[in-house]
């Protein structure tokens, strides 16, 4: 539910509050009324105000003091104030009002149409401000979420790399053809090949011929169930034959994660035992992992090694004669029994099982056993390898991959790889989704990608891709794609080349991100800012129009009336002989003359006719002269007298000069101001510098620096540039640059 904007009205006379309430009841606002400054502060504490309408003359705390206190409590979120006064006010009073936060003055009795018009402008400005705050919040939230996801992706990738690189066993990833996609150092050590050599090979290159027939059923099992393990023979780079136990699981997509352990030495030891039947204690204890010997088919423990005894915590008398299944956790016994059935047929078995220690701890083991006969007794002899770390690594890797997939889906961020030699292309699941396909629905290819590119962007994308491919350099591009249903989306593409150890380009690694929604949010924010800028320009034009109207009324009505009064007083004085009355008439006449001068000065400030009559140069000379006398600051002028600018643009330049000098008088503590007006080519430059205390970076960026904001907006309305620079203690320099041919365009409320 949208909350109504809050407007504060303060007047010490209840009738005036009632009148203001009657005027504003047609507007959808939350009205806060107060009869004093103290009451107003109490009612609005902690409340955000869209506007405050305050009577200047109030007992106790006057309007100026109230405005200052309101804005002291709202640092960085100043409240615009319209002051109401029943009396004319001089420039000192005007300065005091603007310093306290005034944005306008209204003379009592208040014209309801003018007040409603001003309130409407500030409410519209407030609504735009709230919209910008909301958009900024959404963008910040999106950026924070994207940063969090990127950090999560980075940590997952680092954890994944740590598990792979530090795994005690060989770890590698292959595709459905058996081609190596990723290998760790342990895998290279086991087979004798370097990482670069393996990445150019397939499993079939090093698999011994006698293991092809054995491995094929296991590979079929891997495709169907997603997991398989086998004991196979491989050729080492040095020509020797090695025995490996391989355990594989299917990853998302078309890849397979494999763990391998070289058991050649174990097999050689077992064969030696078979040949010599040397089950000596020293020999058994030298075997890596656990060793066990059971009678068969009774499956009772006969002997074991030290590692078995230490790991499981049983004494010798507790182990001798125990049944094999007593070591196994119930959930893996079925697998063990199944392997024993295979053992009866072939005499060899390999199984993964959970074994139970004396303390009740479960440990995953890869168990291998063979059958042999000695003195008419059949035995089952085997060894086991603790695969706890391997299991943890596999689980962590699968979890990391699932997290990565989910994170990519949330961020609409996919990744892809392109082989620089074979042109094989791999997409992540989110990449498929971005291009409008279900994961693995189609076979990714460059042609498929180019089909999705918007026809108007196709040449640009192909050119960027070809240049990057040719030069092997990174590239980054934003372009449109068209999905199968005709929907257009905007994506960001980024990629870089990966090299092998020889410095040759090996593959492209890239990302693609759907940025449709973020682009939409940026466009909406830009539109809001443009609307706010137009509104600001419109408000400024309204103010200038009001100044012209007030100036005309002061000059035509009040000025003529005062002149008539002065003439009548002169005629009365000629007809009266009483010296005392003549003296009083002279005093009144002098007061009227001073009032006429005040009206003329106010009229000139509201709309300097001198700009229209004599031009910008004369107007600057008149105002700076009057400013120097009033404020006591020396003003040095250096102006090009040949410059000619239209009255509308001259007025905007004059207002920026006027606002600059006002800021100098309020804040700078300067005693000298240098003002230069010059022309260079098609540009006019106004430069104003002072020798004051300067302005800080924080003050320049403050949200309540309405004067600076107003000057920047005025400069933008002419297509100009406004810049301010300062060093603490070294004064401030303001530069305004506008085109010579610019013509100010009047703003309309419906722009």
Q: Which class of the largest domain in CATH terms?
A: Alpha Beta
CATH superfamily of the largest domain: Histidine kinase-like ATPase, C-terminal domain
The secondary structure category is alpha+beta
General shape: elongated
Mean pLDDT: 77
Number of domains: 5
CATH architecture of the largest domain: 2-Layer Sandwich
- CATH fold-level topology of the largest domain: Heat Shock Protein 90
Unreliable residue runs: 744-751
How far the N terminus sits from the C terminus, by CA atoms, comes to 28 Å
Biggest sheet strand order reads: 2-1-3-4-5
Radius of gyration: 44 Å
* SS element count, helices: 24
Tell me how many strands there are.
25
- Major sheet characteristics: 5 strands, parallel
Helix content: 40-55%
Assembly classification? single chain
Strand content: 15-25%
Description:
This protein is an alpha+beta fold and 751 residues long. It folds into five domains: 6-136, 3-Layer(aba) Sandwich (Rossmann fold), CATH 3.40.50; 167-262, 2-Layer Sandwich (Beta-Lactamase), CATH 3.30.450; 266-387, Beta-Lactamase (2-Layer Sandwich); 412-514, PAS domain (Beta-Lactamase, 2-Layer Sandwich), CATH 3.30.450; 610-751, Heat Shock Protein 90. It is 49% helix and 24% strand. Helix 5 (112-166) packs antiparallel against helix 14 and helix 18 (516-575) crosses helix 24. The radius of gyration is 44 Å and the shape is elongated.
């Amino acid at each position: 539910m949208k909350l109504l904007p809050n407007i504060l009205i303060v007047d010490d006379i209840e009738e005036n509050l009632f009148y203001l309430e009657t005027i504003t009841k047609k507007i959808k606002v939350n009205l806060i009324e107060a009869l004093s400054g103290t009451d107003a502060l109490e009612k609005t504490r902690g409340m955000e105000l869209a506007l405050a309408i305050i009577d200047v003359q109030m007992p106790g705390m006057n309007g100026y003091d109230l405005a200052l206190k309101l804005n002291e409590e709202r640092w960085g979120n100043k409240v615009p104030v319209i002051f109401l006064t029943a009396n004319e006010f001089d420039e000192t009073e005007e300065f005091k009002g603007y310093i306290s936060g005034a944005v306008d003055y209204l003379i009592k009795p208040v014209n309801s149409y003018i007040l409603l018009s001003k309130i409407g402008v500030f409410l519209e400005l407030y609504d735009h401000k709230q919209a910008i705050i909301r958009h900024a919040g959404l963008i910040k939230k999106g950026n924070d979420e994207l940063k969090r996801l990127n950090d999560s992706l980075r940590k997952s990738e680092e954890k994944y790399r740590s598990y792979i690189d530090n795994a005690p066993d060989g770890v590698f990833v292959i595709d459905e053809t058996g081609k190596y996609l990723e290998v760790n150092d342990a895998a290279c050590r086991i087979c004798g090949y370097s990482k670069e050599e393996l990445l150019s090979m397939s499993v079939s290159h090093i698999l011994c011929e006698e293991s092809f027939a054995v491995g094929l059923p296991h590979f079929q099992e891997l495709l169907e169930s997603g997991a398989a393990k086998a004991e196979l023979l491989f050729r080492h780079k040095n020509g020797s034959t090695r025995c490996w136990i391989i355990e594989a699981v299917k990853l998302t997509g078309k890849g397979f994660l494999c763990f391998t352990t070289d058991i050649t030495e174990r097999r050689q030891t077992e064969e030696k035992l078979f040949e010599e039947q040397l089950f000596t204690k020293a020999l058994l204890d030298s075997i890596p992992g656990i060793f066990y010997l059971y009678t068969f088919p009774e499956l009772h423990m006969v002997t074991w090694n030290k590692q078995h005894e230490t790991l499981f915590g049983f004494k010798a008398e507790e182990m001798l004669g125990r049944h094999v299944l007593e070591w196994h956790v119930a959930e893996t016994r079925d697998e063990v029994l199944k392997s024993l059935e295979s053992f009866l047929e072939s005499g060899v078995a390999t199984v993964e099982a959970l074994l139970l220690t004396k303390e009740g701890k479960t440990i995953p083991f890869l168990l291998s056993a063979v059958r042999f006969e000695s003195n008419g007794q059949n035995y089952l002899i085997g060894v086991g390898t603790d695969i706890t770390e391997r299991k943890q690594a596999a689980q962590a890797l699968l979890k990391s991959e699932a997290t990565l997939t989910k994170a990519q889906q949330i961020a609409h961020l996919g990744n892809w790889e392109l082989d620089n030699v074979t042109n094989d292309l791999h997409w992540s699941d989110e990449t498929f989704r971005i291009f409008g396909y279900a994961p693995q629905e189609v076979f990714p290819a460059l042609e498929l990608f180019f089909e999705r590119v918007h026809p108007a962007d196709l040449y640009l994308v192909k050119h960027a891709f070809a240049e990057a491919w040719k030069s092997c350099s990174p590239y980054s591009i934003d372009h449109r794609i068209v999905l199968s249903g005709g929907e257009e989306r905007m994506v960001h593409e980024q990629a870089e080349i990966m090299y092998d150890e020889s410095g040759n380009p090996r593959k492209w690694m890239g990302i693609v991100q759907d940025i449709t929604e973020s682009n939409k949010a940026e466009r909406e924010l830009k539109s809001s800012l443009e609307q706010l800028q137009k509104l600001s320009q419109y408000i400024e034009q309204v103010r200038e129009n009001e100044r012209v109207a007030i100036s005309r009324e002061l000059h035509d009505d009040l000025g003529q009336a005062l002149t008539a009064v002065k003439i009548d007083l002169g005629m009365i004085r000629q007809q009266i002989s009483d010296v005392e009355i003549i003296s009083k008439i002279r005093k009144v006449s002098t007061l009227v003359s001073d009032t006429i001068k005040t009206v003329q000065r106010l009229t000139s400030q509201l709309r300097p006719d001198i700009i229209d009559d004599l031009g910008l140069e004369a107007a600057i000379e008149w105002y700076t002269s009057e400013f120097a006398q009033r404020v006591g600051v020396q003003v040095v002028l250096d102006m090009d007298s040949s410059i000619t600018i239209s009255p509308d643009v001259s007025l905007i330049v004059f207002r920026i000069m006027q606002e600059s000098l006002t800021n100098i008088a309020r804040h700078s503590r300067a005693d000298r101001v240098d003002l230069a007006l010059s022309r260079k080519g098609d540009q006019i430059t106004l430069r104003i510098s002072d020798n004051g205390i300067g302005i800080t970076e924080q003050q320049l960026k403050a949200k309540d620096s309405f004067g600076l904001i107003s000057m920047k907006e005025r400069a933008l309305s002419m297509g100009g540039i406004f810049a301010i620079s300062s060093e603490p203690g070294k004064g401030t320099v303001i530069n305004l640059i506008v085109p010579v041919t610019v013509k100010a365009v009047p703003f309309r409320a419906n722009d």
